[in-house]
Amino acid sequence: MDNNTKTFDVLVIGELNVDLILNGTITPEFNQKEQLLKDAQLVLGSSSAIFACGVARLGLKVAFLGLVGDDVFGKFVIKELGARNVDTHAIKITPKVKTGCTIILNRGNDRAIMTYPGSIAQLKKSDLDLSLFKSARHLHLGGYFLLDSLKKDVSSIFRLAHQNHLTVSLDTNYDPKEKWGLGRDNPLRDTDIFFPNETEIKQITRQPDVESAMKSLGYISTIAVKRGKTGSFARQKNEIKTVTAMKVKVKDTVGAGDSFDAGFLYGYLSGFGLEKSLKLASVCGSLSTTQAGGIAGQPNLSKAIPYLK
Fold first, then answer.
1. In angstroms, what CA-CA distances link 191 with 72, 172, 212?
2. What is the mean pLDDT of the chain?
3. Which helix (H) or strand (E) holds 286?
4. What tens digit of pLDDT does each residue of 78-104 get?
5. Could you report the per-residue pLDDT of 141-193, keeping only the tens digit for each?
6. Topology of domain 3-15+57-63+121-302, per CATH?
7. Is a pLDDT exceeding 90 seen at residue 225?
């Protein structure tokens, strides 16, 4: 089966949750003290879901493999993904767990994040319809450090993907426990594209700087590192490219890194080459910050392409 006859371009495995985004110049206090916020919004959350919406927005055929509870938040997640052309048939719904929820308090350029993992930590290999690997081109996994029940199986899942001729990408995201361990069966050794930010790559490799960290991961063919306002850079085998960040009016940085991943992967699967893929990643990440939440500002391809010239 060639790429033109594959049912899906990208399969996404990862965490699913809602985000409750609060905006206000306050610091929460106990003793029943009530304070007023400027704004509140319930949106689709999770790194993996935001990524899935981003690549679907760019025009790729995407399916999500995950777990939600049989509750209001779970129904909201599935509805929002479906509305953005992400196939949700492989998302398992169970009454045994509650869907995850993240509360984000934005205060100026800073934010506080609190997450109830719920179904995120309960996702297991047995919940995944791995038969879909036969009908896809690429597998992406996000939120690795939150997937407590799946982590031990990630490497075997990646190897199965390779056996079915899929390429594989990984965005571990931040480790809330700050242990940064990938275990003896390190999934990075079965990863084709790694999407860390500067903090994550240094912590995971235990290296003092990004350059040393990149060298220690020489066995990964492609690494794209997110640097926020500074921009981004990537290495593909012996080729290295750097891109500066676009100047935009930032409203919300939630999910910018996931939209970056989406742009890079679109370029990678489309044969754009390293520099053009990195530029598209930067455009997608930057434009996503112009709207609240992780998905509202994600561009389609026709909106993103002009910025590459």
1. 35, 11, 19
2. 94
3. helix 274-288
4. 999 999 999 999 999 999 999 999 998
5. 999 999 999 999 999 999 999 999 999 999 999 999 999 999 889 999 999 99
6. UDP-N-acetylmuramoyl-L-alanine:D-glutamate ligase (3.40.1190)
7. yes
SS (H, E, C) 188-203: HHHCCEECCEHHHHHH
Let me know: does 25 contact 35? Beta carbons within 8 Å.
no
Q: Where are the domains of the chain?
A: 3-15+57-63+121-302
**Number of Cβ atoms within 10 Å of the Cβ of 260:** 27
Instruction: Report which of 129, 130, 187, 195 is spatially closest to residue 164, judged by C-alpha positions.
Output: 130
Signed CA dihedral, 258, 195, 184, 130: sign only: positive
Q: Tell me whether strands 167-171 and 193-194 are parallel, antiparallel or unpaired.
A: parallel
Residue 15 is which amino acid? E
